[in-house]
Amino acid sequence: MISYVSTTSPDAAVPVRTSGLTKRFRGQTAVDRVDLEVPAGAVYGFLGPNGSGKTTTIRMLLGLISVTAGEITLLGSPMPAGAGTALPRVGALVEGPAFHPYLSGRANLARLDAADRFSDPRTARVRIDQALDRVGLLAAAQKRYRAYSLGMRQRLAIANALLMPRDLMVLDEPTNGLDPQGTREVRHLIGELADDGVTILVSSHLLAEVDQMCSHVGVMYEGRLVSQGSMGELRTSTVRTVRVDTDRPEDAARVLRELGLSDVLTASAHVTGLLGDVAVEKIVPDLVNDGVPVFGFAVQQPSLEDVFVGLTGEGFDVSG
Question: Of 191, 229, 242, nearest to 307 (Cα)?
């Protein structure tokens, strides 16, 4: 059996790193001084609205288009000079799958594998069957590609990226256009690959998808990388909301404002406010000392949508 477990070496502790990465088309800046850093073993969500520069960045990473300015290191090798060393260890799906419609799924993969100068023809059938099995298409291997559903086509494209052992997978909008079942299948597959130690860079314009499957996230907006880090780091960088359940919301709101909370809002049975730098442990004692009954208290972590809005001042597609 061919192993798909990552073989990442110490020189690739940060499998994807860019410095000042810039791309201009006819005087227009599509990607503006992006400093990307994808940790080893991460599922890194490259998040941003359509047109924010995600695909252009990915195409530069893979050497598909030239760089206007800046530097790229992929799996420890400078790009594009080190493409011959790095790219055989990278699987990629960029801008949707493209296969021969009249050939079966297996035949399509066989043609692509035969064109790969790094593959071993003696192990081709075993590797093709294992890749098909890995994405749940072994039973449909003889079916013609034109009869595949959109989800099956997307999974076949990922199977193609898995024909050889990979240290890094780069997936551009892998759930784009899929129904809920197809989306779940692709998300589950990404989780399995991550469990095997493969580093995954997955671009998406869907907040909900990134929120569910990614350990790290980089937020692109108008060609710039406005923030990146682990999910926990991004959420704690955004102001948290405090909620107090009480039958005296006006009095509770006054206490919260005196403590220094901002954007304090009242409802019939609760009050909320942005915590900011206020010590959370002071809130309930101050309320009680002021005679305000507290029936419930919670510090609410911001959603990924809250984080994006806080970084850019506007939102975009949450779930598709």
Answer: 229
Closest CA to 194 of 5, 15, 9: 5
Q: Is the dihedral of CA 98, 102, 105, 111 positive or negative?
A: negative
Name the residue type at position 276: G
Residue 98 DSSP code? -
pTM of the entire predicted model? 0.76
Alpha carbons 92 and 128: distance in angstroms, whole number:
16
What residues contact residue 279 under an 8 Å CB cut-off, 6+ apart? none
Print the SS3 string covering 17-75.
EEEEEEEEECCEEEEEEECCEECCCCEEEEECCCCCCHHHHHHHHCCCCCCCEEEEEEC
E strand or H helix at 258: helix 249-259
Q: Please, what are the averages of pLDDT over each run of 10 residues along the chain (320 residues)? A: 37 83 91 94 90 92 94 93 90 82 95 88 92 90 92 87 90 82 83 90 86 89 89 74 92 93 91 86 93 91 71 57
**Taking a C-beta distance cutoff of 8 angstroms, is the pair 132, 157 a contact?**
no
Residue whose token pair is 């937020």:
219
3-class SS of residue 163:
coil
* Contact assessment for residue 105 and residue 143, using Cβ atoms and an 8 Å cutoff: yes
Torsion of CA 53, 56, 57, 61, to 10 degrees: 170
Structure tokens at 188: 């589950």
Beta bridge partners of 201: 44, 170
Selection from 270, 295, 269, 273 nearest residue 284 by Cα: 295
